[in-house]
C-alpha cells in the first residue's frame, strides 16, 4: 500500500515531465458575412514539421525558405483536414496568401483563404480533423465572426464536426467550450501545476524547530490547502479578468518569465523555508502573475463580443475545476505519507529541488528567448 502511494505521489510530481509540452493548437478565424467566407489559419511549424517534414537540412531550425518550398504541401495537407459546409452545401476553399507569424510559443504558418458558398450561409458546418491521426490531444481553436458578432469554439478528437447557427449562437455551448478549455489548460500547463504542487507539498507538514514535522490531523492540512488554493484562485481571477478585458496588459515574455520565477521561489521555499507560515501570501502574490498567463491563453482562444462574461466565467471556472481535481488526488496521498522519510526527504526536498531546476531553466529560456528544454 505504501509503495503504491509513493509511486502515485511521484507520478503526480514528475510523470508529466515525460510528455509535457506546449499543447498542439491551431487558430482558425472565419468571417461569414457574405457568400464568400474569408479565413485565416495559423498552424504551428513544429506540428507541420512532425506531420510532413519541413526541416530539409535537419539542423533543428525551420527557415522561411524551407517553409516556402513546402507551401503547396502544407496547403494540401491542411485543407485535406478542413471541410466547410453552408446550409448543407460544400464551400470549396482556395488560398489567397500565406506568411509566417510568431505566437508566444513559436513560429506559425499563416494561411489566408477564401471559401465560395452558394449563398450567404444561415448555418455553417465545419469538419476539422487536423493532426488527430498524429496527436489525439490537438485542439483547433475557432474564432467565427458573423453579422458583427464573434464566437469561439474548440475542435478536439471527440468534437470534429460542429454546426453553427450564425444568427443565434448558443451561449450555453460557448460556456461549456470555455469551461472545458479552462480545465484542459490547467492540466497541461506544467508551470502552473508545478507552482501549485510546490505550495501544496508542505501543506501536510508543519515547520517547527528548523525542520518539517507531520501535521497533527487532516483538518490542519486541509485548512492550509484551502488557504493556498483560495488565495491563488482570487489572485489569478483578478488579473485574468483585467487582462482579458484589456484593462491591464503585461507583455507575454514578462508574464511567462515571472511565472517561471514564481515556481523557483515556491519550490526553494520548501528546501529553505522563509514563507512557511504564509504560503497563502506567496500564492496570492504570484497568483496575480499567473492570471496574466491564463489571460494569454484566453485571448488566443478569442473572446466572443456578445458573450464576454460567459467566456470569462466559463474559462475561469474550468481552471478552478482543474485545480480542485489535482488537489483531490494529491492531498489524501500526501497526508497518508506525511510521517515517512520518503515524503519528508525524497518527495518534498528532492522533488522541490528538481522542480526548481526545471523552472530555473524555463526562466533562462524566457528571459533570453532561448530554447533548449524539451518541455
Number of helical stretches of at least 4 residues: 11
The overall strand count is 12
Portion in helices: 40-55%
Distance between the termini: 32 Å
> pLDDT average, as an integer?
88
Report the radius of gyration as a whole number of Å: 23 Å
Question: What's the multimeric state?
Answer: single chain
Question: Which term fits the overall shape?
Answer: elongated
Instruction: Going across the biggest sheet, name each strand in turn.
Output: 5-6-2-1-8-9
Major β-sheet profile: 6 strands, mixed
Order of helices and strands: HEEHHHEEEEEEEEHHEEHHHHH
Describe this entry's structure for a reader.
40% of the residues are buried. The model is unreliable at 11-21 (pLDDT under 50). The protein has helices at 2-14, 45-52, 64-69, 71-79, 171-188, 190-200, 218-244, 252-271, 279-301, 308-337, 341-368, and strands spanning 25-31, 36-44, 82-86, 89-90, 93-103, 106-116, 123-128, 139-146, 149-155, 161-165, 205-208, 211-214. It is built from eleven helices and twelve strands. It starts with a helix and ends in a 7-residue tail after the last helix. It has two domains: 2-20 and 189-368; 25-170, no CATH class. Helix 6 (190-200) packs parallel to helix 8 (252-271) and helix 7 packs antiparallel against helix 10. The longest helix has 30 residues, at 308-337. The strands form three sheets. It has a six-stranded mixed beta sheet. It is α+β, with helices and mostly antiparallel strands and 375 residues long.
Amino acid at each position: 500500500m505504501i509503495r503504491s502511494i509513493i509511486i502515485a505521489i511521484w507520478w503526480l510530481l514528475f510523470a508529466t515531465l515525460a510528455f509535457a509540452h506546449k499543447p498542439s493548437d491551431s487558430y482558425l478565424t472565419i468571417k461569414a458575412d457574405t457568400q464568400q467566407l474569408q479565413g485565416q489559419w495559423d498552424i504551428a511549424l513544429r506540428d507541420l514539421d512532425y506531420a510532413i517534414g519541413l526541416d530539409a537540412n535537419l539542423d533543428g531550425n525551420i527557415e522561411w525558405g524551407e517553409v516556402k518550398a513546402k507551401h503547396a504541401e502544407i496547403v494540401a495537407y491542411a485543407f485535406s483536414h478542413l471541410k466547410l459546409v453552408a446550409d448543407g452545401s460544400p464551400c470549396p476553399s482556395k488560398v489567397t496568401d500565406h506568411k509566417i507569424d510568431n505566437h508566444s510559443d513559436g513560429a506559425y504558418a499563416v494561411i489566408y483563404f477564401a471559401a465560395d458558398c452558394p449563398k450567404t450561409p444561415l448555418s455553417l458546418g465545419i469538419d476539422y480533423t487536423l493532426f488527430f491521426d498524429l496527436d489525439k490531444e490537438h485542439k483547433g481553436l475557432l474564432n467565427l465572426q458573423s453579422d458583427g458578432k464573434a464566437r469561439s469554439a474548440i475542435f478536439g478528437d471527440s468534437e470534429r464536426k460542429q454546426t453553427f447557427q450564425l444568427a443565434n449562437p448558443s451561449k450555453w455551448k460557448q460556456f461549456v467550450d470555455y469551461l472545458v478549455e479552462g480545465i484542459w489548460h490547467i492540466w497541461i500547463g506544467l508551470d502552473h501545476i508545478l507552482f501549485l504542487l510546490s505550495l501544496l507539498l508542505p501543506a501536510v507538514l508543519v515547520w517547527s524547530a528548523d525542520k518539517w514535522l507531520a501535521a497533527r490531523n487532516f483538518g490542519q492540512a486541509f485548512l492550509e490547502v484551502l488557504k493556498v488554493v483560495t488565495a491563488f484562485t482570487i489572485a489569478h481571477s483578478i488579473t485574468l479578468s483585467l487582462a482579458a478585458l484589456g484593462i491591464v496588459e503585461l507583455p507575454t515574455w514578462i508574464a511567462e518569465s515571472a511565472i517561471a520565477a514564481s515556481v523557483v521561489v515556491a519550490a526553494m521555499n520548501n528546501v529553505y523555508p522563509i514563507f512557511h507560515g504564509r504560503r497563502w501570501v506567496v500564492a496570492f502574490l504570484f497568483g496575480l502573475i499567473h492570471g496574466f498567463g491564463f489571460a494569454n491563453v484566453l485571448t488566443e482562444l478569442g473572446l466572443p463580443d456578445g458573450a464576454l462574461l460567459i467566456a470569462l466565467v466559463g474559462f475561469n471556472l474550468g481552471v478552478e475545476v482543474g485545480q480542485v481535481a489535482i488537489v483531490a488526488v494529491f492531498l489524501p496521498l500526501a497526508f497518508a505519507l506525511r510521517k515517512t522519510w520518503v515524503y519528508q526527504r525524497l518527495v518534498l526536498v528532492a522533488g522541490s529541488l528538481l522542480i526548481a531546476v526545471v523552472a530555473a531553466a524555463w526562466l533562462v529560456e524566457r528571459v533570453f528567448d532561448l530554447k533548449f528544454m524539451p518541455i
